[in-house]
Design a protein that fits this description.
single chain; alpha/beta; five-stranded mixed beta sheet
């Protein structure tokens, strides 16, 4: 009978300490790692380590005595431990910035590390105590990490066939105008990169000319060429979209100077419920009352506790009333729904407190509240679809969601005219008379017109988006002239049709041969690279306000920019390169 094959994990092999001086190896998490070249040997056998040393390093160290080799091993081991310590400090600094934590949290993190090491591996407690995390060190680490991420982005940008930008501008807590510039680029093999290109701090005016200067500086820094710019997405504010001197007009003029035939795609997409409520729905009288009621309850601790106790006793299904403020306008729909569900309990509670709410007894106001609850719920659903997480959201998917929403508005308006409230359940429950339903139909029509205006840029691009999303179903006659012949070849190939249905868009178009479909590939790249909204900027502004708040207002623009780059980046820092650069710097000093 043949002997059973031995298993390494049951042989109890451990690292022999004499191997450090003999073969210049050390033990890292149960693996033998060469101190000279960093090669890892998983199987802890004298033969394996000796074989590596003889074939790789014996020529260099063969003339050393045992004592000299031991000193070399100690020096290499000390350097390896130091590099591990430095790398640890970089990793922790990255986590602090990525989580938007104050730099002062570094001492708390270190205390946790040391205490955990004292309990789990006391022999290594000293190594954790040597991790350098003073405030200035963390600050330098954050700066170095951000610089490393920017360098990697610059390397990726050099490979872009085309790119687009998303721009938005807002003031921080110290009234400094911060311009966020996000970049989305695509390579020849359809690899897409979406990163924060720059945060430009503007101390003076923010005219179209000023913004153009900052955008130009950003592209120059990343060595991005203007003739590769495919599109720009903004929130539609005047200094960005001004007809004569706005940023977008200046950008088109810049591109036209380089290539007269190049046209940029400009998209203006923003769906702030705060704006829509004021300008279209005109429901301020509803929201203002609800906000005051909620503030009355939440602003006083006793009132809040007593209402929570009342809700618990009544088993209402709600444990509390949500809190709404202007900054977090997306929460408005949930607050309105909570107040609607709890309006009876809230009215009784406020009456006992001598804070009567006459609007809650007004049938017309209650109907307006029901209508507002239903409409904000629909808009929240749309916002959730337009704010999908991930690397990017294909602009056609976003437009499809907006089109579906507009069709729903048309359906709701026609049904309300016919006094059918099937899809407006809150309004249906609130309405005691159908006489005043006409105004709600008019509001839905106005909302539809506003969305049609806001998405007009997308509508103009619809046929080009359809060409990318459904190339086998689109009309050749309606396609751009430069892709028509290629499109016929594509639609006539049954194998490519089967392949299209089985893989993702990116994978399909990257698999098309460039020599056969050059124009179709280029057209697809320019569509896939477009930003569908400025949501990525809005999301980053929330991170900015969290980092530069009234409690941390002294953070510099440079450090704020570094933190935002780290907090928003999908690129992994090259910690080994950072450690090597730090080692060279320490050596030079």
């Amino acid at each position: 009978m043949s002997a059973k094959k031995r298993k390494v994990d049951i042989e109890g092999r451990v690292f022999n300490k004499i191997w450090t001086a003999k073969y210049l190896f050390t033990d890292i998490q149960g693996n033998a790692v060469c101190l000279v070249c960093g090669t890892q040997v998983a199987v802890l056998k004298d033969y394996n380590l000796n074989c590596h040393f003889v074939t790789k390093h014996e020529e260099k160290y063969k003339n050393l005595s045992d004592e000299e080799r031991a000193r070399v091993a100690d020096a290499l081991l000390a350097n390896a431990n130091r590099d591990a310590t430095v790398k640890t400090s970089f990793v922790i600094a990255h986590k602090i910035a990525w989580r938007s934590k104050p730099f002062s949290d570094r001492e708390f993190v270190k205390e946790c590390l040391v205490d955990a090491a004292a309990l789990m591996c006391p022999e290594k407690k000293g190594a954790y105590e040597n991790v350098s995390l003073p405030r200035r060190t963390v600050t330098r680490r954050v700066e170095d990490i951000a610089e490393n991420l920017e360098l990697q982005l610059k390397e990726k940008a050099a490979e872009f066939d085309c790119f687009s930008l998303a721009l938005d501008e807002s003031c921080d807590v110290r009234d400094t105008a911060q311009l966020l510039i996000f970049l989305r680029g695509i390579t020849n093999d359809f690899q897409i990169t979406e990163e924060l290109a720059s945060m430009q701090s503007m101390k003076g005016t923010t005219t179209g000319k000023d913004l153009m200067t900052e955008v130009n500086a950003c592209l120059d820094k990343l060595k991005l060429e203007w003739d590769k710019l495919a599109g720009v997405t903004t929130d539609g504010c005047p200094n960005l979209t001004g007809k004569n001197v706005g940023l977008l007009k200046r950008m088109q003029d810049k591109v036209t100077e380089i290539n007269p035939e190049q046209k940029l795609t400009f998209l203006h997409c923003i769906i702030h419920q705060e704006v829509l409520r004021k300008t279209v729905l005109k429901m301020n009288h509803v929201v203002d009352v609800v906000t005051k009621v909620v503030h009355f309850i939440r602003a006083r601790a006793l009132n809040h506790r007593q209402l929570v106790a009342l809700l618990e006793d009544s088993e209402s299904g709600h444990g509390d009333v949500g809190y709404h403020c202007a900054v977090r306008w997306l929460s408005l729909g949930k607050v309105l729904k909570n107040v609607w569900d709890l309006r009876v309990q809230i009215q009784d509670f406020c009456a006992k407190k001598g804070h009567d709410i006459p609007d809650f007894s007004d049938d017309e106001w209650v109907a307006d509240l029901g209508f507002t609850v239903d409409v904000t719920s629909l808009m929240n659903e749309l916002n959730a679809k337009l704010q999908c997480k991930g690397l990017f959201v294909f602009v056609h998917q976003m437009y499809s969601a907006a089109k579906a929403f507009m069709r729903k508005l048309e359906l709701l308006s026609s049904q309300v005219k016919e006094k059918v409230l099937t899809h407006l359940p809150t309004l249906k429950a609130a309405t005691k008379s159908a006489d005043h339903l006409q105004k709600y139909s008019e509001m839905l029509d106005a909302l539809h017109c506003e969305f049609s205006r806001r998405f007009q840029d997308f509508k103009n691009l619809e046929s080009e988006m359809l060409l990318v999303s459904s190339p086998f179903n689109c009309s050749v006659e309606k396609a751009p002239s430069d892709v028509q012949m290629e499109l016929i070849d594509l639609q006539s190939d049954s194998l490519l049709s089967d392949h299209f249905r089985s893989v993702s868009l990116l994978h399909f178009y990257s698999s098309l041969k460039e020599e056969s479909f050059p124009h179709l590939r280029r057209h697809t790249q320019r569509i896939l690279v477009l930003f569908g909204s400025t949501y990525v900027c809005e999301q980053t502004f929330l991170v900015m306000k969290f980092n530069k708040s009234k409690h941390r207002s002294s953070i510099t623009d440079e450090h704020l920019s570094a933190v935002l780059r780290i907090a928003t980046s999908d690129i992994q820092p090259d910690f080994n390169a950072l450690v090597q650069a730090q080692s060279r710097l320490d050596y030079s000093h």
